[in-house]
Structure formats: structure tokens, C-alpha cells
Amino acid sequence: MSQTTERPLINVESHEPGSAKGIYHLVIHLSQSRGIAVGRLGWHFFPRGYYVYTGSALSGLGARLNRHLREDKRDRWHIDYLLRAGRLTEIWYHVTGRRLECTANQAIANMPGAREVVCGFGSSDCRCRTHLWHFRVRPRLDRSRFRPAARAARVESVDRS
Ligand SMILES: [Zn+2]
Fold first, then answer.
1. 22-66: pLDDT as tens digits
2. Which among 2, 19, 132, 133 is least surrounded, fewest beta carbons within 10 Å?
3. DSSP, res 67
4. Using an 8 Å Cβ cutoff, are 53 and 25 in contact?
5. Whole-angstrom distance, CA of residue 111 vs CA of residue 136
6. Ligand 1 mean position to 12 CA, how many Å?
7. Which InterPro entries match (predicted)?
8. Separation of 131 CA from ligand 1 center, angstroms?
9. For the chain, what is the domain count?
10. What does the buried/exposed string (b/e) look like for 17-38 if buried means 16 or more CB atoms within 10 Å of the residue's CB?
11. 83 is in which domain, residue-wise?
12. Distance CA 44, CA 116 (A)
């Protein structure tokens, strides 16, 4: 998988209609443990390793993913603070109009090694404890038990360095 870090920034809209609805996972690598202020959630300690965040975009998956890729933006969501500190290494997405975000998030939570770091991260609008899971080693999302994603999600590699 070493070559994946050398590929260029993706343009999601070249792959999918910008208006498509869907859900997505972001894989973020944090090379050093550090404290991060996460908006109203305040300061939290983030161990180094990999984080998987699950979100949904019901009005424009392409636009949302491209926003996650941009660096010149104001911090708005919890994930923006972590993206600023870490490195986005993979995007997995699934085009669907169904509200499967929490189901997909639960599948990540059930993967071996998943740990909660911040309660309430990305889950202000649902009943999940968090939409962000930490892994000490790079998680294999193709082994997620979220079957729609396993069939249809696409892997994109991102190099922001
Ligand atoms: Zn949820």
C-alpha cells in the first residue's frame, strides 16, 4: 500500500455527480499524539494512530468531500479540527439516499481495535456515542461488516503533503 501515499489529490466531482447523496468514511492519520481543541467539545487528548470518521451528505456528496479536502476553510464541524491536525489518507464513500450513516458508523465501531476517544464527536444529531473511532494500526475498511460499503464504497488515496 506504500504507493497510495504518492498519488495526487482527488477531485471527487470527477468521479461522482456533485449532487449525489451518500455516506462516507474518512481515514485520518495522526503521526504524533497531541491535544486538540474540538470546538464546543473542548480540549481532548488524541493518541497517535488512525481515526475513522463517518458522515453523510444528503445534498451533495462530491461537494462535501471536496470541502473535507480543502484546507482554506473555517472550522465548522468537529472533524474539521482533526483534519487540520492530521492527514487525510483515505476516503470511502457509498452513494445512497438512505440514512445509513449510523449503521455504517456502528460497523466501524465493531471492527477489531476500535476505541472511542471523544464522546459526542460528530454525533450531535443522532444517538450514537461518537462517529469517530481510533485505531492503533491502519484499519482495513474493506473488512468492515457494513455490507453496502463493502460492495460499493470506493477507496481514494489522498496526498496533502
Ligand atoms: Zn449516529
1. 888 999 999 999 999 999 999 999 999 999 999 998 888 878 888
2. 2
3. H
4. yes
5. 12
6. 24
7. DUF123
8. 6
9. 1
10. eeebbbbbbbbbebeeeeebeb
11. 2-157
12. 12
